[in-house]
Specification:
It contains ten helices and eleven strands. It is of the alpha/beta class. It has a single domain, classed as Rossmann fold, CATH 3.40.50. Strands 1, 2, 3, 4, 5, 6, 7, 8, 9, 10 and 11 form an eleven-stranded mixed sheet that branches. Strand 10 and strand 11 form a beta hairpin.
């Protein structure tokens, strides 16, 4: 379902190009639906079995874009990063923004790390993926570019967003259980992957062995962008009711928007961690309710908001209506950084 405000903006930017194409072809709506251009030689609906290779390293990624995309048409570009121990298949199901590609004119690139976690060694590959998509679409046609990442993919997006390659390109950062900017949401005491029945116990460190190195949380980025944070209720002890990022961007006081009610479940979960499962890590997909908090009227059209998915944990895939709520916020946030270069 497309909300009226989002549809108004979508119609203003997308329908003229589609109408011109339709009139030029003199065809039927069915003909028009087949008249879209091809990006990087790939099908408009991505397939992990037939990924696209980026030319720099030859590594692959999945690309989704509107099947009726016209040359010169404005789009919203999302780089969608999976978490540690995961892959592009899971990420496309966890945050299936690609299902809204026609309505919101989305181009979604979902890359994959062979190490199943993102490292600095992957940065050049991610740069190449982004460059390939920008060159294919045209920088002037990208109305907004967002980094989105789940868990360690969110931490990686946080690390990357203000680096020289991304700082003059990115308009927003969506953290999917990957850390909140503007004041961290403290983790639940029981957060983390649960030990499974029958699993081999972790070895006891030898006497005098060096302690394990904890995951490093990157510092708060200092460049300007919109920020959305989505989290499962059971992952955190509490959600902060203020945001230093909102203060920085001169937003108004936080307001709670209408709850988002999903009658359909998400598309995925961690099936390998259900013996036993925990509410903190995530159980089976199921319908749900999400609370949405926004800091309105931010300077320069930025959007700062928090979403708490009630009775959910770290790994249940996002439900359809909350996916659309997040994409809608991305769509209405300020953009155009690539067009200004």
């Amino acid at each position: 379902m497309i909300r009226p405000a989002a549809f108004s903006r979508l119609r203003a930017r997308a329908l003229p190009a589609l109408l011109l194409s339709f009139l030029a072809l003199g065809g039927s709506p069915a003909t028009q639906a087949q008249s879209g251009i091809s990006l990087l030689g790939g099908s408009c609906t991505g397939n992990a079995e037939q990924p696209i290779a980026e030319p720099g390293t030859g590594r692959t990624f999945v690309l989704d874009y509107p099947c009726d995309l016209q040359a010169g048409e404005p789009v919203l570009f999302i780089l969608n990063l999976h978490g540690a121990g995961s892959n592009e298949r899971y990420q496309r199901a966890y945050f299936p923004a690609w299902e809204l590609k026609e309505q919101y004119r989305l181009v979604v690139a979902t890359p994959h790390s062979p190490a199943r976690r993102w490292r600095e060694e992957d940065d050049a590959y991610l740069h190449n993926v982004v460059t390939a998509v920008i060159d294919a679409v045209g920088a002037q046609n990208i109305e907004a570019f967002w980094l989105a990442g789940h868990s360690q993919g969110g931490l990686t997006s946080r690390r990357l967003v203000c680096t020289p390659f991304f700082a003059d390109k990115v308009d927003g950062f969506l953290s999917l259980s990957g850390g909140r900017l503007g004041g961290a949401a403290p983790r639940s005491p029981n957060a983390g992957r649960p030990a499974q029945a029958g699993a081999t116990p972790a070895p006891t460190p030898a006497a005098g062995a060096a302690p394990a190195v904890a995951a490093t949380v990157p510092a708060e980025p200092d460049c300007a962008f919109s920020h959305l944070f989505a989290i499962g209720e059971h992952e955190i002890a509490s959600l902060p009711d203020t945001s230093t990022l909102a203060t920085k961007y001169q937003c108004a006081a936080r307001v709670r928007l209408e709850d988002v009610v999903d009658t359909e479940p998400g598309r995925t979960h961690d099936s390998g961690s259900q013996n036993p499962g925990t509410k903190e890590w995530g159980l089976l997909p199921r319908p749900g309710v999400a609370q949405v908090y926004e800091y309105p009227n931010c300077a320069d059209g930025r959007v700062i908001a928090d979403v708490v998915r009630m009775d959910k944990g770290h790994t249940e895939g996002l439900e359809p209506r909350i996916v659309e709520t997040l994409v809608g916020m991305m769509d209405r946030a300020a953009g155009g950084r690539l067009q200004e270069r």
